[in-house]
Amino acid sequence: MEQVSARIASLSPSATLAMSQKSNELKAQGLDVINLSVGEPDFYTPDHIKEAAKKAIDENFSFYTPVPGYMSLRQAVCAKLLRENGLEYKPEQIIVSNGAKQSVCNTILCIINPGDEVIIPTPAWVSYIEMVKLAEGVNVCVNAGIDQDFKITPEQLEAAITPKTRAIILCSPSNPTGSVYSKEELKGLADVLAKYPNIIIIADEIYEHINYVGKHESIAQFENVRDRVVIINGVSKAYAMTGWRIGYIAAPLWIAKACNKLQGQYSSNASSIAQKAAEAAYNGPQECIEEMRKAFERRKNLVIKLAKEIPGFKVNEPQGAFYLFPDVSALFGKKYEDKVINTSDDLAMLILEKGLVATVAGSAFMSPECLRFSYATSDEKLIEAMSRIKKVVSELK
Ligand code: PMP
Ligand code: GLU
Questions:
Q1: d(CA 209, CA 80)
Q2: What is the pLDDT, as a whole number, of residue 165?
Q3: Which atom of ligand 1 is nearest to the CA of 125?
Q4: 236 lines ligand 1 (CB under 6 A)
């Protein structure tokens, strides 16, 4: 009987990856599709990091590593956390995994029992909700629309907390909105969470370095919650290393130990070569980060300007990451030829089919009124993509 488990049957496929695959399929058919769906830097990994990987191969770093990663890499991560974030961690508190995605999933699986509630401020990255489902937890979405810059307030947070709340997943800078919580805003949330010692705070900081407002702020800086924060981070976005698959948690020791046990049974260590490359990323020169950040900032300004010219697009000003998340609900109910556009899924499909631009519908991020564009691509492609979208949208009646 071809019947997958109920657990897997209940999962939705990743919409970001699905849209990207669809765009690649259309390209393979010879269509000139511009892919603004998946979010990953378009830069190559810096040379000194690639060199470190080549050296690791030549020096035979080809054996299993400790499950949580080489000690030298975990020490490099601790040095980074102290240097850049002023946070003190011991290597035992760091677990290196196959990308930040596995780090989030490990954490959720290690702390959530069936029926436990997890607060997800939405819009939220597609995978959180599915990971909570995998752990048989209950998602409690707290929505913040474009009028509040997609950021939840302490009052909203407190109203969502129940005796069953076990965790909250905060993402700043945010995928999909690009919003960044200020230090004061994080303190407001921390002060609420401080009153509920059962709640673990999963702080996804993977976009830490793609920040247009200055210094990154981590909720882990607040002493009243510090011992319950799990920081998620990695090299994918900061060092243009998405394919290398290195992420980590910096966590209270008991959570780190649990993730170590899970990973020991489930996937073992992340790639030894990629770990050596990540070590070079953290210990080496850091100028590459600023160069890429500047390019993203220029593209952000470009794409905001162009998106504002599209009728029916309501645009906020993202302060980080590389996504624009306009509210497109003003277009719902309009027609393209005889097809009515009722949702952002309809609009994303129309823009793909008629404009040959791949985006991701906001429904995947629990915000069906929006559409996500990744602007991690060249200025030329962005200009062409936004002009194609404008043309399609202008034809809606
Ligand atoms: N968190 C967020 C918010 C992300 O956007 C991503 C990238 N898809 C990840 C985690 C996972 O990153 P990685 O590539 O390191 O698994
Ligand atoms: N961060 C990217 C995105 O959201 C990568 C794809 C994924 O893992 O979801 O598009």
A1: 12
A2: 98
A3: 3
A4: yes
Map tokens 């709340």 to a residue.
165
d(C-alpha 29, C-alpha 333), whole Å = 32
The three-state DSSP-derived secondary structure of 199-224 is CEEEEECCCCCCECCCCCCCHHHCCC
> What's the full length of the chain, in residues?
397
CB proximity list for 125: less than 8 A, separation 6 or greater: 171, 174, 175, 176, 204, 365
- Low pLDDT (below 70) residues in the chain: none
Domains defined for the chain, CATH in brackets: 6-44+288-394 (3.90.1150.10), 49-283 (3.40.640.10)
State pLDDT tens for residues 232-289.
999 999 999 999 999 999 999 999 999 999 999 999 999 999 999 999 999 999 999 9
Ligand 2 proximity of 34 Cβ (cutoff 6 Å): no
Of residues 285, 276, 239, the one with CA closest to residue 58: 276
Q: 126: Cβ below 6 Å to ligand 2?
A: yes
Question: Looking at ligand 1, which atom is closest to the CA of residue 247?
Answer: 15
Helix (H) / strand (E) containing 361: strand 360-361
Instruction: Please report how many Cα atoms fall inside a 13 Å half-sphere around the Cα of residue 287, on the Cβ side.
Output: 3
